[in-house]
Description:
A: about 35% helix; globular
Amino acid sequence: MTEPAVSPTLKPLSDHVMILIEAVHKWYGVFHVLKDINLTVRKGERIVVCGPSGSGKSTTIRCINRLEEYQRGRIVVDGQELSNDVKQIERIRREVGMVFQHFNLFPHLTVLENCTLGPVWVRKLPRRQAEEIAMRYLERVRIPEQAGKYPGQLSGGQQQRVAIARSLCMNPKIMLFDEPTSALDPEMIKEVLDTMVALAEDGMTMICVTHEMGFAKTVAHRVIFMDGGEIIEEKPPEEFFTHPESDRTRLFLSQILHH
Amino acid sequence: MAESRVPHSNLPPPASTVGVVGWLRRNLFSSPLNVILTLLAVYLLFVALPPLLRWAFLDASWDGDNRDACRPGGACWVFIRVHFDQFMYGFYPDGQRWRVNAAVLLLILGAAPLFVRAVSSKFKIRLGLGLLIAYPLIAFILLKGGMTGLPVVDTSQWGGLLLTLVIAGVGMTAALPLGVLLALGRRSRLPAIQTLCVTFIELWRGVPLITVLFMSSVMLPLFLPAGMNFDKLLRALIGVTLFQAAYMAEVVRGGLQAIPKGQFEAAAALGLGYWKTMGLIVLPQALKLVIPGIVNTFIALFKDTSLVLIIGLFDLMNIVHNATTNPAWLGFSTEGYIFAAVVYWLFCFGMSRYSQNLEKHLHTGHKR
């Protein structure tokens, strides 16, 4: 487990609800993968979602930007309800940044082009301005010198930081992280986590699926434990780690904290 | 722990693994079987090559303007020399052939910047699109005439290499975008579009090109109202294009399937819509992957143009064949077909080399 270097201050949260998930159910064929998911995320709040593999954590956050469909319930993102309307979905996706486990950078574009693609083609910014923004965020993730390279020439940790910068260039209101460090070599996890901590310090609303419990302790307002498609437990980190309620949570924590 | 270790210095590799000797050992004499095959190949070349060279070059006749100039025993390239203009232009009227040259020159000059590395890609895209729209129009006006005071040259008079290039050029430039659309349609989630594209592709892929050409020239007029007639060349062009588009669609689909799901998801997460995702993210990668397949289809198309001879168009192949049946020049079919083969080969080999070059240039993978 890698402890991030600095701990962000926990500012008091506003009452503005950024994400509202209400009684969401999802089936893959006959397989019931999400069972009655309810979650409210306020502006500036940072949530860490953990749980064993196949517990539905990735599926849950992928519902928020409609990479996954759900069959029942509703999700409201910053006041806009997800519907089947493609334009509405695209509008919401613009405001929700996502970082994937396998980076998913565009290999045929340079790092800079990866970062300017969204601002230029979705936000319709002039290229010059988009490049300025991109360079600013590449500096923030501390790899401005790689701007002209292709993703295939970078290490995993660098690629993931580019992916974070690419999302930030869209100036999103919410950032979703889907196991951002799971595909990384151990020595590269810290550089990515440090970037995420810095982002947390700026007050970004974040939902992060991760097993990095050190990150959860320092950054999260709430930790959510999922198993079998359900939310089992939902607590502030200090309570979650010291007084887990359910047996399943205890089992999970013992497995991932003592390996 | 404290003992100091002197690093081993780099030694040169054994002499038998590098240089000419190494190459020969690796490639020609790596096993007893390969030794035998190498020696056999050398023997065959020794037997076959000298007579061939003697026939084609040493004993060949080059000068003259009728068959009396041909010496027995060697190739008579006079046959090609005399018919050369016909092979290039077909029955295009003598005095008007400058128009063909002008059209070709215009294309070469217009397209040249596309092949220069230093030119910015933004300019290339604009120029490419401009050429794609304007050039066919300009070329058509130049070749067909009728406007701007040029005398009309009917398409039935077009022939030779000119006709081959017209069919191949139109076929390639129209089949690729059409094929891309068909491939996208085949993977579409909309059942109507998908069914339409699958039906189209399977229908056209399931019939031989000869059948398509026959249908277009023999059967289509039967369905048209009496007196209505449209150009035979145009019908062949449409037939060839639709036929090749079906093949192209399957080549492109192969590339589309190779793009990981994560690319679509990353594009979607940025808020890109369908066409932007396809145009900016998926197709650039997919098309790059299938360059060998695309060029393969192009090369096949180029050679398939020779099939238009069955509907009475005089492309390069047919016009050469026609010349060999000329009573004044009987007996020179070998020279004629060799000439045709060399011309086809030059174009196809050129396309192949260009595509390899392009692949290398577009490679952005792991070039550390």
